[in-house]
Amino acid sequence: MAISKLHLLFLLSVTLSLYRPVLSDIDEEDNLLAGINSYRTSLNLTTLTKIENAECLAEEIADQFKNQPCTNTTGSASVPGTEPGFPNYPNLLKKCHLNITATRDGVIMPACVPSLDALLVLNNFTKSQYSKNLNDSKFTGIGIGSDNNWIVVVLTTSTPEGGFSPATNSEEGLTFGRLLFLFLVSFFYMFF
Ligand SMILES: *[C@@H]1O[C@H](CO)[C@@H](O)[C@H](O)[C@H]1NC(C)=O
Ligand SMILES: *[C@@H]1O[C@H](CO)[C@@H](O)[C@H](O)[C@H]1NC(C)=O
Ligand SMILES: *[C@@H]1O[C@H](CO)[C@@H](O)[C@H](O)[C@H]1NC(C)=O
Ligand SMILES: *[C@@H]1O[C@H](CO)[C@@H](O)[C@H](O)[C@H]1NC(C)=O
Ligand SMILES: *[C@@H]1O[C@H](CO)[C@@H](O)[C@H](O)[C@H]1NC(C)=O
To answer: What are the alphabetically sorted keywords of the record (predicted)?
Structure first.
């Protein structure tokens, strides 16, 4: 009895320690969303609603940036137009079930802040070149993703060209089928 309780406690602490980094990332993202929305409110603009596909894209882009160091020319301090493009952007879109035409009017704003300090992060969006996007009524939706010292905000519009509505093709079904197949194959190898 005592052993199984210890065992449970051990499992619980492992689970908690695994989840903590994820939780703190989400806190950063929620803080930034709240900060951006109060900035919008102070400008008499509508608040931005979370768009799942935009959040997916933001996470993917943060993942691309995560190993780049913060410098005074990265992220919100970069000269507009000099940000590195992503040769695999079409793949990132595909991962998030997005069609490039549904993202054309959206904007992607990466920022690099050591340890994602909450106030610096907010200032990197509201007190930089990015603020003009936040002060634009054409944007109605938002997705935030973060990884390491990078946090990425994607803004979406309510038009078809920026609404980030999912692509309508059978890609998802195929991917799910492939996952199921892989699962079955590994199951087979494990037990037979
Ligand atoms: C927002 O609206 C209020 C009331 O309509 C007005 O007093 C205030 O000046 C406006 N603020 C901005 C930034 O437009
Ligand atoms: C960026 O940092 C470098 C080296 O630390 C410095 O020489 C440069 O002046 C800085 N640039 C800006 C725009 O602050
Ligand atoms: C994206 O959507 C448009 C219009 O719905 C369609 O014409 C185009 O072929 C699609 N592109 C891709 C890559 O799926
Ligand atoms: C953005 O974050 C950096 C830290 O990476 C900080 O040095 C800089 O002051 C911030 N920029 C603004 C406009 O707050
Ligand atoms: C926001 O945009 C409005 C209209 O374009 C402009 O008058 C105002 O100064 C801007 N405010 C900020 C803080 O950028």
So the answer is: Membrane, Signal, Transmembrane, Transmembrane helix
Q: Tell me which residue of 29, 30, 103, 87 sits closest to 59, measured CA to CA.
A: 29
Q: pTM of the full predicted structure?
A: 0.75
For the chain, domains (ranges, CATH) are 2-191 (3.40.33.10)
CB of 43 within 6 A of ligand 1: the answer is yes
Which ligand is nearest to the Cα of residue 97, counting in written order? 3
Tens-digit pLDDT profile for residues 30-54: 999 999 999 999 999 999 999 999 9
- pLDDT tens for 21-36 read 444 556 899 999 999 9
Cβ contacts of residue 103 below 8 Å, gap of 6+?
A: 57, 93, 156, 162, 164
Q: E strand or H helix at 26, and its extent? A: helix 2-42
Asked if residues 164 and 106 have their Cβ atoms less than 8 Å apart, the reply is: yes
Structure tokens at 63: 């993942």
> Quick check: CB of 133 below 6 Å from ligand 5?
no
Kindly report the protein residue whose alpha carbon is nearest to atom 11 of ligand 4: 124
Separation in Å, CA 104 to CA 53, 91, 110: 14, 16, 17
Q: Which helix (H) or strand (E) holds 118?
A: helix 118-126
Nearest to 152 by CA among 95, 94, 91, 68: 68
- What is the C-alpha to C-alpha distance for residues 166 and 135, in angstroms, rounded to an integer? 26
